[in-house]
Design a protein that fits this description.
heterodimer, A: 12 strands, globular, B: mainly beta, four-stranded antiparallel β-sheet
């Protein structure tokens, strides 16, 4: 069985502060994908990043960065110099890579972290 | 490039009725998966279709069913609605599933009264 844990239910910071959202996962699969999604109040899940289990290179995209550590089964997400527009619920998700064509089963989501950026 | 389109956006149904939700994936995407989001259970995987075949199914009762058409559009059906079926239903499309990431629609908010 797969499991994704986002221990932080809600985080509130003042604008321009850095904030890290934690994600810990459990899986018996040797190959898998990890994702982060953002859900604004409108409800749509916005794709932020996908990471293959065999690629532990950290990634930076503008103010966003991701730290993948397979040894601790963690895939943390950091927002640098947060802005009010970053306020949303953020989900970490896991999917096994089972199909030869690179397909995967459904996503297993964490419960989400509600991030509040105060002006 | 058009995104994932879900219709309708909002729906109110009465207990015992059935409902059909529709999802049109991104052009060229062959994988469509469905998720239920509730405050208590969070986001839960319902099922995934690829080239008109159901590839995987989550832990939901048989009242929840789906299908995919030759143009990759998908529908999900919930029969004998219960109050607990009130949720945001999200559809995601992918090229092959997972490897290329999943793009989600805006969802259908179903309220059962």
């Amino acid at each position: 069985a797969q499991k994704v844990t986002q221990a932080q239910t809600e985080i509130s910071v003042v604008e321009k502060e850095d904030v890290t959202l934690d994600c810990v996962y459990e899986t018996r699969d040797t190959t898998y994908y990890l994702f982060w999604y953002k859900q604004p109040p409108s409800g749509e899940l916005v794709f932020l990043i996908r990471r293959n289990s065999f690629d532990e290179q950290n990634e930076i995209s503008g103010r966003y960065s991701w730290n993948f550590q397979k040894s601790t089964s963690s895939f943390n997400f950091t927002i640098t110099a947060s802005q009010v527009v970053d306020s949303a619920v953020y989900f970490c998700a896991l999917a096994p890579r089972r199909y030869s064509g690179g397909g995967a089963d459904g996503l297993t989501f964490g419960k989400g972290t509600h991030l509040i950026i105060q002006p | 490039k058009a995104g994932v389109t879900q219709t309708p956006r909002y729906l109110i149904k009465t207990r015992g009725q059935q409902v059909t939700l529709s999802c049109s994936p991104i052009s060229g995407h062959r994988s469509v998966s469905w998720y239920q989001q509730t405050p208590g259970q969070g986001l839960q995987f319902l099922f995934e279709y690829f080239s008109e075949t159901q590839r995987n199914k989550g832990n939901f009762p048989g009242r929840f069913s789906g299908r995919q058409f030759s143009n990759s559009r998908s529908e999900m059906n919930v029969s004998t609605l219960e109050l607990g079926d009130s949720a945001l239903y999200l559809c995601a499309s992918s090229g092959t599933g997972g490897g290329n990431g999943y793009t989600f629609g805006s969802g259908t908010r179903l309220t059962v009264v």
